[in-house]
Amino acid sequence: MKIIVLAPAKINLSLDVKGKRADGYHTLQTVFQAIDWYDRITVETLPERGAFAFSCSDKALETEKNTAHKAAALFRQVTNFTEGISIIVEKSIPQQAGLAGGSADAAGVLAALNALADYPLPEETLWELGAKIGADVPFCLCGGTALGVGTGTELTPLSPLSPCYIVIAKPEGGVSTPKAYALLDSAENLFHPDVDGMYAALQAGDADGVFSRVGNSFEQPLSLPETEPICCTMREHGAKAAALSGSGSAVFGIFSQKEAARHCADILQKKYPQTRLCQPCSGILLEKIE
């Protein structure tokens, strides 16, 4: 049996870092949104019990440290799933972008293996398993629009974002998550966006209220040279809001009109090849092939 997985990226509509915990992790409050920029993963059973094959289109990621590889090993350990499996990851979501590409791959593998094994793990248990791989994995399993608190792994699904168009532009440089947090920890007068207000606006269907509360605590301490120019270009061409996603370096702009969004994407793509016109999506897509 074979399962084709489309694992979507995410953006953080609002991201507030509350502080650093005693265990070294950070307390967050964020609103996640899944978008239709996908990595494609093929998970297939093999005839030899216990066999395992793994490949990735980016050969630099073809290691046991790959999140998809880790997800498969953890799922087998927890469920005693012994079927032989092959996993092929075709990358599209950029790395070090704040778009959760690695977390999306882990989530996609967990969802596919759970389906292949005839769903031994309920949704919440799968989220708990995902959290052992990375803080964004539970949301990547959840999808849609959701509030994340704690380390971002405690999730509350929210009313969907109003129909809109999202332009993503990623500069050439990336940002490692540990470095981003180190810069944030040393920053003074950290910006704290109104995540509670965004939550209320989403639940009320107040699109303008959502747009006015887009923000990210990482923007100021990272001070990436291309973030503000990209945001300005997006706003100049009709974006209702624009901000850094996650710990960067990708920037997103939200548009109500498709033509304005497409025009802005065309302009940005000339300088930033990793630019994509997206829309909100509901989450992982699975296609089972007998």
Measured between the Cα atoms of the first and last residue, the distance is 5 Å
Beta-sheet strand percentage? 25-35%
Globally, the shape reads globular
Which radius of gyration do the C-alpha atoms yield? 19 Å
Q: How much helicity do the residues have? A: 25-40%
Order of helices and strands: EEEHEHHHEEEHHHEHHEEHEE
CATH top level label of the largest domain: Alpha Beta
Fold-level CATH name of the largest domain:
Ribosomal Protein S5, domain 2
Q: Quick one: how many beta strands? A: 12
CATH architecture of the largest domain: 2-Layer Sandwich
- H/I helix tally: 10
Which runs of at least 5 residues are low in confidence (pLDDT < 50)? none
Largest sheet: 8 strands, mixed
Number of domains: 2
Mean of residue pLDDT?
94
User: Which structural class should the secondary elements be placed in?
Assistant: alpha+beta
Question: How is this structure best described in words?
Answer:
The mean pLDDT is 94. Helix 1 (67-79) links the parallel strand 3 (52-56) and strand 4. Helix 1 runs parallel beside helix 2 (101-116). The protein has two domains: 2-157, Ribosomal Protein S5, domain 2 (2-Layer Sandwich); 165-278, GHMP kinase, C-terminal domain (Alpha-Beta Plaits). It is 32% helix and 31% strand. The chain has 290 residues and is of the alpha+beta class. The radius of gyration is 19 Å and the shape is globular. Strands 1, 2, 3, 4, 5, 6, 8 and 12 form an eight-stranded mixed beta sheet that branches. It starts with a strand and ends with a strand. It has helices spanning 67-79, 101-116, 123-131, 137-142, 177-185, 195-204, 207-211, 219-222, 227-236, 258-269; strands at residues 2-20, 26-46, 52-56, 84-90, 145-150, 154-157, 165-170, 215-216, 241-244, 251-255, 274-278, 285-289.
